[in-house]
Amino acid sequence: MLFKSVSLPPYSGFPPVVSFSLEERTTVLLRALDSDVAPVRSLSKEHIIPVLAVRWVVRTLNTRAEETQSKEREKERWTRREVACFLATFSTPSESSSSLAPQETPMTISDRNVQLTAQILQSLESVEHLSQALLLTNTLPSSAHRFSGKTFHKFLMASEAFSPEIVSSDLLGASTLDLGHAFNEDRLTQKLKKAKKVIKNQKDSVVRGSVFEALGKLPT
Fold first, then answer.
1. 116 and 123 in contact (C-beta within 8 Å)?
2. 176, 183 in Cβ contact below 8 A?
3. Are 141 and 88 in contact (CB under 8 A)?
4. What is the pLDDT of residues 67-118, one digit of tens each?
């Protein structure tokens, strides 16, 4: 099925995978993950596996939410900010685990962030296994060891610790291309909208109260 997608006969174990060209094997990987698009192909080789992994997670969770029509599944979908936080962990220096490193205030661990971390680690592992099966290890190097769960949690929990500028527009664009429908609205954005609505309602209530009070003072 996968080899047929690049105009090759179904693979039956012969000839060996290595006999296929690098371009053919790369195309099989990208098409298997629904990511054979120019922005992904143009990324530096060390970024392709992480981008494929996060695109697969976003697409899979959205498909599951659409199929089940479940509110709980709907909540599982990733936000654009969460994708950016994940990508940012590959753009920042790894943190030292040395006992000489300054002690930081323990972070609050949320169930949501643990869930996100488990999902992306599983996806990274699966994508890398497929890449290895297609003998692409030298072309698309492993990246799971560069992922820092601690940094990911820090970015997710503290808005001041994360700056969108850390992630290049090309990297974020490749990760979200054709997936605009698959994202949840950012929770911080939702809270701000709710807060603005509450403030507006309060102002409207005050205005209405003032009008009625003024009307009540009119001479009869």
1. no
2. yes
3. no
4. 999 999 999 999 999 999 999 998 766 554 444 445 566 677 889 999 999 9
Number of Cβ within a 10 Å radius of residue 118? 11
Which residue, chain included where needed, has tokens 């429908």? 181
Long-range contacts of 43-46 (CB under 8 A, 24+ apart): 43/170, 43/171, 43/174, 45/139, 45/140, 45/141, 46/90, 46/141, 46/143, 46/146
Q: Does the N-terminal peptide bond of residue 9 adopt cis geometry, omega within 30 degrees of 0?
A: no
Is the distance from CB of 78 to CB of 183 less than 8 angstroms?
yes
> Amino acid identity, residue 147?
F
Strand partners, 184: 79
Phi, psi of 217 (to 5 degrees): -90, -5
- 13-40 pLDDT, tens digit per residue, is 657 777 889 999 999 999 999 999 999 9
Nearest residue to 173 via CA among 65, 60, 54, 74:
54
Collapse the DSSP code of 79 into the 3-class scheme (helix H, G, I; strand E, B; otherwise coil) and give the result. strand
Whose CA is closest to 70, among 62, 58, 78? 62
CA 161 to each of CA 89, 116, 150, 156, 184: distance values in angstroms, whole numbers, following the listed order = 12, 18, 12, 9, 22
Do residues 60 and 122 make contact, with C-beta atoms less than 8 angstroms apart?
A: no
